Amino acid sequence: MTDDTSAFDLIDDALDERDLTALARIAGDLDPGPLTDVLERLAPAPRAVVYRVLPKLVALEVFERLDPALQAEILDALRDEEVTAVFTELDPDDRVGLLDELPASVASRLLRGLPRAERDLTAIVLGYPAGSIGRRMSPEFVSVAASSTAQDALERVRRVGADLDSAHTVPVVDGSRRLLGTVPLQCLLSAAPTVAVADLLQEVDTAEASDDAEDAARRCVGSKALALPIVDAEERLVGLLTVDDALRLLEDADSEDQARIGGVEPLRRPYLSTPITGLVRSRITWLFVLAIGATLTVQVLEVFEATLEQLVVLSLFIPLLIGIGGNTGNQAATTVTRAIALGDVGTREIGTVVWRELRVGLSLGLVLGTIGGLVTTLIYDGDIGLVIGLTLAAVCTMAATVGGAMPLLAKALRVDPAVFSNPFISTFVDATGLVVYFLIARAVLGI
């Protein structure tokens, strides 16, 4: 059975008929990936029923694939001993993500129920600030001394790190746990047993545990390394960020940026499993912000009401002008926000970006203004065509410049650049674009 839709229908039918035997058989035939997709589409109660009929190893793998919010819902439906067993099997960094979704009393109880060694590892990750890479790294790794031989290092990997996801990258440290470099596991396997690890050492990029998680993840992916060592302020090794975790982190960050660019808060869970109230909360705040911003447009129209009364034809072009201005600003903001995320530009390049976007906006404005002015002249008259042409040129230039600058200003203020993107810029350009429009109309038409 490979089709997710048919699998969902079969599981849904088994749930309706309360046939747990059939449910267990159908769910057991699915791979963890498709099974996770099915669970994400179910409501909380039936999701918990399906989860409880899964074999233990499959259940754990599926649980690790779910978003923390859904993990919390499943734990809420399990017995205490089942919750403890699942929580203990998670990696420390995954535990911390789940703890952030749980009530404080439940989180404290789960932490107390962990074995001492696992509780200590989890506490290491919990000790770092939210948003830092220390909060997302794995504190479980196997390191070797530079003076070790390849054979000694392999034996240590087999003894200590055989079950670790990060065992493919072996950090090399000195006596004070300071990172000297790494050795790929493949090099240890192919090297002569007596070769010193120091002779196989490779320099590697690192991130400090307090660094921004998204920046560190991009560094990991950009270096094409299987894992990025995480160090403290004294260059001592404290954890590893695997490329799988880095890619997952970037996917979450990209989803968050795209949501905010579109004027909603990120859901942080699959759409079909998000309650209606959650969808409303994710949108209502931005709608209030945009509604308040739209009052600026109303105020501008009220100020220039006399101008519109003298030449009503001007009102026909308002949707065109504010639409083009808003879209131009959004294009610039989206492009620069993406460039910031990829590390192509930073706050130091704000002058360069503004100058580039000003020229781009002016070029777009001249092209659109020329075409718009000619068409308007043919339909109405030359004066109206001149007003529309000049306004398009001015609005496009202004919108692109502001749209390019806003994300970098947000970055400088340590605010998410996506927050300053499309919704804010559209509102700003609508109001200022109308002011420009009416001032040009008064100057050209003498009204």
TrEMBL record:
Residues 137-200 form the CBS domain. The chain crosses the membrane at residues 284-304, 311-329, 360-380, 387-409, 424-445. It is a multi-pass membrane protein. The keyword Protease does not apply. It is found in: Cell membrane; Membrane. SUPFAM superfamilies: CBS-domain pair, MgtE membrane domain-like, MgtE N-terminal domain-like. InterPro entries: CBS_dom, CBS_dom_sf, Mg_transptr_MgtE_intracell_dom, MgtE_N_sf, MgtE_transporter, SLC41_membr_dom, SLC41_membr_dom_sf. It holds the Pfam family MgtE_N. The keyword Transmembrane applies. Keywords: CBS domain, Cell membrane, Magnesium, Membrane, Metal-binding, Transmembrane, Transmembrane helix, Transport. It comes from the Bacteria. NCBIfam families: mgtE (TIGR00400). Homodimer. Acts as a magnesium transporter. Belongs to the SLC41A transporter family. This is Magnesium transporter MgtE. The lineage of its organism: Bacteria, Bacillati, Actinomycetota, Actinomycetes, Propionibacteriales.
